[in-house]
């Protein structure tokens, strides 16, 4: 699997490395996006599924995670079962670039490299329903496509204290971006 992932890094559909949003930021993100039991949350590249498991356990939201890495898929399914939310959370093993039912998402979360966000940018705008939200962590969506539709950018300072007091202020990059899909799709996305 390790070598399969290594070669996948050169694939145009490679969206980002295995990493996970810190739990504190998962909770911030769900609060900033106002996720409730009425939501269907997608996480494109869901790794261990923590965003969806937290959304289901804390808010009762339904979730769909798509993940290319088989081990991560297993972890996510286990995590959902352990939290008792497997009836709310579906974890798919596959390529997020090929997802064809984003229209049912009311919130789509993505913690991906800038090239991953760029790869999915048009698909998100074309496929998601007007009024639905896209939430990204650390990296924003391409400015030329999405800045007009940015509702919130929240920077969160780290509470990590390395012993000497004060800790490290990570608010320069520790950011949550919440966008809303407009009622009328922009011209660039009709072509
Ligand atoms: C930075 S991690 C984010 C994990 C999770 N969303 C979170 O916030 O905790 C990016 C994930 O995307 C996955 N990934 C990369 N390219 C993918 C693709 N084309 N389809 C599905 N998953 C992909 C990686 O395996 C990795 O688990």
TrEMBL record:
<dbReference type="GO" id="GO:0016279">
    <property type="term" value="F:protein-lysine N-methyltransferase activity"/>
</dbReference>
<dbReference type="Pfam" id="PF13649">
    <property type="entry name" value="Methyltransf_25"/>
</dbReference>
<dbReference type="InterPro" id="IPR026170">
    <property type="entry name" value="FAM173A/B"/>
</dbReference>
<dbReference type="InterPro" id="IPR041698">
    <property type="entry name" value="Methyltransf_25"/>
</dbReference>
<dbReference type="GO" id="GO:1905706">
    <property type="term" value="P:regulation of mitochondrial ATP synthesis coupled proton transport"/>
</dbReference>
<comment type="similarity">
    <text>Belongs to the ANT/ATPSC lysine N-methyltransferase family.</text>
</comment>
<feature type="domain" description="Methyltransferase">
    <location>
        <begin position="41"/>
        <end position="131"/>
    </location>
</feature>
<protein>
    <submittedName>
        <fullName>S-adenosylmethionine-dependent methyltransferase</fullName>
    </submittedName>
</protein>
<dbReference type="GO" id="GO:0032259">
    <property type="term" value="P:methylation"/>
</dbReference>
<keyword id="KW-0949">S-adenosyl-L-methionine</keyword>
<dbReference type="GO" id="GO:0005739">
    <property type="term" value="C:mitochondrion"/>
</dbReference>
<keyword id="KW-0489">Methyltransferase</keyword>
<keyword id="KW-0808">Transferase</keyword>
<dbReference type="InterPro" id="IPR029063">
    <property type="entry name" value="SAM-dependent_MTases_sf"/>
</dbReference>
């Amino acid at each position: 699997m390790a070598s399969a992932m290594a070669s996948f890094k050169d694939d145009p559909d490679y969206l980002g490395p295995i990493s996970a949003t810190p739990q504190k930021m998962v909770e911030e993100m769900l609060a900033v996006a106002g996720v409730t039991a009425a939501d269907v949350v997608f996480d494109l590249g869901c790794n261990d599924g923590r965003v969806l498991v937290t959304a289901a356990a804390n808010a009762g939201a339904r979730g769909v995670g798509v993940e290319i890495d088989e081990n991560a898929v297993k972890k996510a399914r286990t995590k959902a079962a352990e939290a008792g939310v497997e009836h709310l959370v579906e974890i798919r093993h596959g390529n997020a670039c090929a997802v064809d039912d984003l229209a049912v998402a009311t919130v789509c979360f993505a913690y991906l490299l800038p090239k991953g966000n760029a790869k999915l940018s048009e698909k998100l705008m074309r496929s998601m329903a007007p009024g639905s939200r896209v939430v990204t962590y650390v990296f924003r969506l391409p400015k030329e496509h999405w800045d007009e539709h940015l509702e919130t950018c929240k920077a969160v300072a780290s509470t990590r204290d390395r012993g000497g007091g004060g800790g490290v202020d990570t608010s320069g990059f520790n950011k949550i971006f919440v966008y809303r899909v407009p009622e009328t799709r922009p011209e660039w996305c009709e072509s």
